[in-house]
Fold each of these.
Amino acid sequence: MEVKSVFSLSNPYKLNYVKEKLDTFGKVEGLNFDYQFCKTPEQIISFLQEKIIDCAIVDVKNYFDLELDFLDWFFVNIYENYDFDVLVSNKNNENFDKIEKIGVLSISQWLYCKKRFHTDNINFIKAFKNINELLTEFDLVMLPGYFTNQIGNHFYIEKINIIDLQKPSFEGASCVIFRKGDERFLFLRQFFIKSVYFIGAGIGDKKYATYEAIRTIKNLDVCLFDNLMDHSLLDYLPEDAILIDVGKRCEHHKLNQAKITDLISMYARMGYRVGRLKGGDPSIFGRLAEEIKVLEDLRINFHIIPGISTINALSIKSGIILTRREINRGFCVLSAIKHKGATAEFNRKELDSLPLIFFMGVRVIGKISSSLINDGYLPHTKVAVVFCIGTEQEFEIRGTLSDIASKINDLKGQLLFDNPPGIFIVGEISNFFYQRSGLLQDKKILVPTPFDDKLYFSFKDIGVNLFSYNLNIKYKITKEILEKITSFQAIAISHAKLAKALMETLFEQKKDIRTLPQLITQSDNVFNFFKHYGLYCVKDIDSISGLDICFIYNNNYCMDLLKLLSQKNKISSIKIEGRTYKTDVLTAFDMIYFECIEQYYEFVDLYGVNSLKDKIILSIDKSISTLITSKKNQSFISIFDKTNFKFNIARLLNFLKK
């Protein structure tokens, strides 16, 4: 499908970046972009309004001239994954002592070069050229860090952090503008934005904030926060995060609700990971429904992090426990304030319209439903039962008072176990659903524990349901085995857990780690582990010959190192047995992520190779690719570069469409 677009960018490298991204991601939906130059904002508005074009690519400084009701937009930032610029010259000019002519792309680069090189011969690059062409015209050029992937080894490169360049906000950003509701661009936008997180800050002291709340706060780009919370939680934010106080107290509002909602959607479309930090729990009297509605309309993904509410914390000191056996079996919670701040008058009839929430009622839902109908509730009253809330097994059944019991009975054979815990909701609120977005919305991915935060939130931003698997295998090297392996001229290790077990035994036995024989490995994880302790591992296997080597291993799969060393050395092998403390029951999943090939082998040892049948395997370890491609019943997608995460997701989406 052809997509007609115009651009008015003066920076040729920003334009090239946007085109590359749109072309790559557009292919997922079969879109082919046709680009034409257009100079004036007035022309762009006219072309969009008359449907002559489908989108326009403009500099962000011109975005505000095009902010009209019938238009929607998103930013594309060349510095999204690269927080630096690069100075590039030929190898024979490493010290920059032969600089006569410099090429730059922005004012901040011009100012930096002017201050550093004390020359007036600094020129703006007018057209996109490859690095060879640029260095025939200039002695030195300054480019965004993204283009380091296109620069060969025969050039000299120096990285300059964008903080040191004092760049204006969004210097590297372009804005893609399109007509509201265009499904093609609502889909494409998801490649360029992150999620919005509604976070419950808990009540009172920050110690009542959850682990997931704090973990999320640490990874936000923008945070809109309330008054009624412990503001020391803001200390967890990254140093460069944008803070916006949107607190409301007793009719004194810094910003009205419409403005808050606008800010959330604006920063999200700019490409920020946005957090709305609310005191207590965001879903209880938190205007959450209004803020989510806007995101649903814009197809912006969101997540909700629950928090401890006042009603949960009431019993901590007061002695008021909201449910006491033989006194009351429930309670009613109401807001004392109506819409627009008016005081609400209490009317007993209002109680009849409030939803009912039943705990511990799964077994007697039939009786509860009959009782409510007999008491005057209409049989078609909407209801829902939500099981296993907050777990990997959470699911729901919806219906009416007249049919919910039979629906549950029909599904009893499919339940994960007899009588799972659940709550029964009666009333109109049970008829609402979230309309979630995200490139991989509802796909279930298993990830190891612990898991890298950057990758964790990259997956969450695209709507993935993340579940953890824990390879609870501990390896123990006894005193006797330690004495044996340290008697060799060298020790070869292929697994980081064995390296850790070796060090733990050395410390337990109070041995000097400097007395260890030569260490050998092919694994980056093992190499970096020993490097942390100041120990050097030889990775050049071809350089090792004539040694008496002890090869320690944990399974029969990782034997490549053994085979290579055996060609020129005398090898003795010792298998270290692992102890499994707990094997988690695997939840159903579509994909699984392995950080390294050792994780793959351990997973197969615990759960069997058939657990991976017809699953998609994700990894940054290239050696897994070689291993898996020979298996006919498995699919494999490799994420080699975390900085190009969205490109890998585009590849994955193309694969899933086959």
Note: The chain has a mean pLDDT of 88.
Amino acid sequence: MMAQTSANAPLQGNATEVNTQGSRPRPDYSKKFKEGKFFYYIIDEAAKTVGVAPANGMDDDMYIKHMEIPETIKHMGNTYTVTEIGPAAFSNCFYLLSVKIPNTVKYIGDRAFTGTALESITIPDGVEEIGDDCYNGCIKAKQLTIGKGLKVAGRDPFIGCWDLQNITVDPANPLYASKDGILYSKDMVTLIKCPAWRTAVTEVTLPSTVEKLGNGAFEYCEYITNIKLNEGLKEIGARAFHMCVSLKTLRIPATVEKIEDGSAFVLLRDCKQYEVAEGNTHFETMLDGQLLVDKAEKKVVSILYTMATDKLTIPEGIEAIGDKAMMVIYENNDTEYDYRGRGRYCVELPSTLKKVGVFAFSGTNIRSAKVPDGVETIPQGCFDDCKKLNYVSLGKGCKYIGEGVFNNCDAMASSANSVLRVYAVEPPALLKDKEGKDVKPFEEKMFLKTTLQVPSASLDKYQAVAAKGWSDFLKVVALEEQSAETISADAPAIVTLDGALSVSTPKAGLVTIYTVDGKQLYSTMQSRFTVELPQGIYLVTYMGKSYKALVR
């Protein structure tokens, strides 16, 4: 999952970061043609100019290994000059290692090199403009070199370039500057990108001129233990400190006025607490620095990551949990292995809560969640990728539910013990997407496994065809007849796989698996394990309680 970013943020320099695609017509790739190793589209027939188009992605048409774009090409008896690289021209060409760009190219389009395997990024002197997300996700690039001609850059052109070791900028460039290998706006007001893969650099001190940290400014700087933020800093962008796992502490200066969202602080593993400088009128900390809070909005901006499993209770008086406040992103197998299944099992929300942000708890290790009555909307991705989540209750005031709220919630989709309890008398309405269509909060498997508990007087409403999304649940029961603690944070997360049973317990204890006729098959004290089993129904016992599991 990749963090969403704000568009059209000014760079405060002699040139600006803008949304570039709106300034030019989008190429018609349906009319592209191939000459030599590349596909092209005609920009201006009278001027005889062309741009590089995406390949067809099959066999010899793929862009792979080392490529060199020519200055001119011959087509239908005419000579054309190559002046552009079109939007997404090389996007997701996973085996593309380098592209030599001629000085005739003036413009590189949105997402042109997104997701490629470029070993280095060189923007030659002739290039004047690059688009949004131009080099997003070039995770293997070690060096970024920017020539003197670049005047305009789109949104977040270098975000996701995790392996950079150095950045150099031609001193004559009007848009960017480089100091100590770090990329800044020309006037040194915005810090745009710090190379992440510098093992010898453990401390960074920001210049006094810096007012903004751009999106992804220090993302994946795993070796940095101390970043000294300057007084005068006003804004912290999304993903600014994402995966700074060795950072020991983070002190927010008194001058900071804006933090984009909680994605700025994902997986600060070694950071023990947030600190806010005295005199900051916008932010404060709570719970010994575990919470970073917006004072005016009474909003938790970020819940500090911890590998501890104890419950966190959000204080009464808090009215909002911000976008991505507790989100954990697993962007590669190493991150998945190191952090999946670790972290808090439960976050207790206050009765004063009125709003929860998008992806607020996405990817976390929580096992249960109880949303208070004052929250009207469960927004997009709120519990997305919470693999162990098996009990959720939504309060009486819930009116709307968004896209993908329960996507990738494996326990909810596979455990017969999972429960979704809704206290609202009227079924919460599905939000609409940009096209006006109903969104899908639930995965199909949830309809088969999860028990939907609703007020007895509302059973017919939730089961009616008009109750879009809700009427698809096969097991709908009156909540008055069920215990509110049917599933708790102390219960094991049981996930059934093809021919296997995976169990994760909140703390060490004897776990035993039986057949339905009482024959013991497996017993362990491990808190996480997977055991292969034939198809059938099994009983899993833990802490004096039994749970049914169906293996297909």
Note: Residues 101 and 189 are 30 Å apart (CA to CA).
